[in-house]
Request: fold
Amino acid sequence: MEKLSDNRLIDLIKEDNHPAFTILVNRYWEELYRHIHARLKDEEDTRDILQEIFITAWKNRTTIYTDANGTLASYLFKAARYCIIRQFSRTKQTIFSEELLENLLNQQSTTSAQEMLETKELEKRVTDELNRMPERLQIAYRLSRYAHLSNKEIAAHLSLSEQTVKNNISIALHHLRVFVEKNTLLVILFLIIP
Reply:
């Protein structure tokens, strides 16, 4: 099955064929990882974006398409591009054009005192929000993000299935993303208004 074309794999994926999807993920994972990580310079964010891209691809499997060359590369790299832009927008960097985006993606990060203050305030709010989540979500998330354990290690530690751990981390991440999107503006107003 590994030698099948993307078109054929997609036909199988549209029939809910999980092994075909796994082959497609394995085919593009490493190249996408290098592409995203070269721009974000953050392993955790890169892994989160990769997971999001492939989860979205699975959810949209009935409408997914290949490019003129019969590969899924264009679809996946376009998704990566949008995710990278969204990641930068979360940090409140406005991107007006593709040229500016390229410059932004290539420039070294410089953090001002105000940005550090914003980040610290946002981190505190995220921690508070995390503390309000059900314990099952908190523990899986903390072991993954702070102790850097794999899903398999967390599953063994908590006597849960890997899928349950993965689901709990995804739910926690989604909840935190929604919270951050809603609260970033509040943090900025808090810092601007004396």
In short: The chain has a mean pLDDT of 79. The CA atoms of residues 33 and 46 lie 7 Å apart.
